[in-house]
Amino acid sequence: MPSESNKFALRHKVRVGLIGADIQMSKSPALHMREASLHGLDYSYELIDLTLRGVAVDHLPDLLSEVEDRGFAGVNITHPCKQIVLPLLTRLADDARSLGAVNTVVFHDGERVGHNTDCSGFYENFRQGLPDVTRDRALLLGAGGAGAAVAHAALSLGMGHLLISDQDASRAESLARSLNEQFAPGRASATGDIEAAMQAADGLIHATPTGMRNHPGLPLDGALIESRHWVADIVYMPLVTPLLALARDRGCRTLDGGGMVVYQAAGALRLFAGIEPDAARMRRHFSELVGADAAPA
């Protein structure tokens, strides 16, 4: 029989990472490595933080080359690189192509293949966390890479009409056009009038960095949130953002970003390592990682 050291040497080794800015608080390394270890993998997950390295997003080509040269199986991609990465890839999987954003890059046979697990992550989190809310009309704040994924998930969940607002009005308009082409005319529209949108909406989906520790504050005037609204936030550091805290105080039903990060991580792990992760087990692990903040609203 092989020695313990030989057994370890025979374990399948997988090296991956995360590229983005201000990511030192990310739970992805712990989520991936715990689950991978339970599948018998020798798995490492490295944070490649633009902020910590003191580089801008224009260094992304060098970072991708670096991790390729180091033998990584792939990398997750987060803010602000999810759309900037597109021209640096060999090809896109169907999900990433339809979304125009990538959060997972797999290196295989000399190719860089872009995928998106954010959409399925938000879909599953919303399906489980807010299964019976009214979905006639919702306001989405943020039309970047994460916003695009969330928008597709929202319409796939049966949202009747999605109003989209972004600091860059042209980006909101472009996303609305793309959604109407892929789903049906009239399913989405861009808006610059957040007050009117909130008056018409059943709920709010927040997909910008506002509320993260390095981006404090609220993404809209808090007075616009009423008890009749449901509020879903994709930020998970902190798990209870200022937006969710205010919404809970108003009596709103809320959904934090914890479930989304778990389900997108499970999807990425599947792509990187070719295993079938136990998402429920990963959800329990996430709750351990974030502590009491993970308690349901």
Shape: globular
Radius of gyration from CA coordinates:
19 Å
Give the SSE string: HEHEHHEEHEEHEHEHEHEEHEHH
CATH architecture descriptor name of the largest domain: 3-Layer(aba) Sandwich
CATH class of the largest domain: Alpha Beta
Cα distance spanning the termini: 52 Å
CATH homologous superfamily descriptor of the largest domain: Leucine Dehydrogenase, chain A, domain 1
Within the largest sheet, what's the order of strands?
Answer: 2-1-3-5-6-4
CATH topology name of the largest domain: Rossmann fold
Beta percentage is 15-25%
Identify the quaternary structure here.
Answer: single chain
How many discrete domains? 2
Low-confidence residue ranges? 1-10, 292-297
What does this structure look like?
It is a single chain. The protein has 297 residues and is of the alpha/beta class. The protein has 2 domains: 4-116 and 260-294, Rossmann fold, CATH 3.40.50.10860; 119-256, Rossmann fold (3-Layer(aba) Sandwich), CATH 3.40.50.720. It contains 12 helices and 12 strands. The strands form 2 sheets. Strands 2-1-3-5-6-4 form a 6-stranded mixed beta sheet, with helices on both faces. Strand 11 (230-233), helix 10 (242-249) and strand 12 form a beta-alpha-beta unit. Helix 2 crosses helix 11 (258-273) and helix 11 packs across helix 12 (279-290). The protein is globular and about 55 Å long. The termini are far apart.
